[in-house]
Each structure stands twice: as C-alpha cells, then as structure tokens.
Design goal:
The chain is of the alpha+beta class and 89 residues long. It is 21% helix and 31% strand. The chain is built from three helices and four strands; from the N terminus they run αααββββ. Strands 1-2-3-4 form a four-stranded antiparallel beta sheet, with no helix packed on it. Strand 3 (67-74) and strand 4 form a beta hairpin.
C-alpha cells in the first residue's frame, strides 16, 4: 500500500494514500523534488532485506527496473500495525 501511494505523481492524492501507512515526517519530505518518483508499478513480490521485532526493511522491484527499499517501524496505532519511516531508491 505504501509503494502504490509513493508512486502516485499527484502530490495531494499521494498524501491521501499515504495517510496511516507513512510517518508524517516522511509525507512532509515529499515536498522535496528528490522524492518525486518515476511512474511505475510494483513488479513481483516484496522481499524482506532486514528485520527485527521493531523494524523491517522491504525491497520492492518496479516495472521500470528501479528498486525501492522501504523501512517500517512497529506502530500499533497505524492502519496496518507498521508505518513507513524511510524510503531509498
């Protein structure tokens, strides 16, 4: 759900889709042009790169060939129990 929201080009729609799955500080960072994603969709399953009981990093391959790593932390109050705090490409 985070990756689909992050790939949304329209900034307002992106913010709406990320509500509850991304930390507010990460959403606010999207005003920076370096967070403007290339259009694409996830291609294949996500893979766990690193995990412990409080944090997990997943790797997502896009149909463009790009790779996106998403770091999540445990957040029982969030929509899915985890919330994205960082993204790297």
């Amino acid at each position: 759900e985070f990756v689909a929201g992050w790939l949304t080009v329209d900034q307002q729609l992106r913010r709406e889709r990320l509500e509850g799955v991304a930390a507010e500080a990460l959403i606010a960072a999207f005003d920076d042009p370096c967070f403007t994603p290339a259009p694409g969709t996830q291609h294949g399953p996500a893979h766990v790169v690193e995990a412990d009981p409080m944090q997990i990093t997943t790797r997502h391959r896009l149909d463009t060939g790009d790779v996106v790593d998403v770091t999540l932390i445990l957040d029982p109050d969030s929509t899915h129990g985890w919330i994205a705090i960082a993204i790297t490409t």
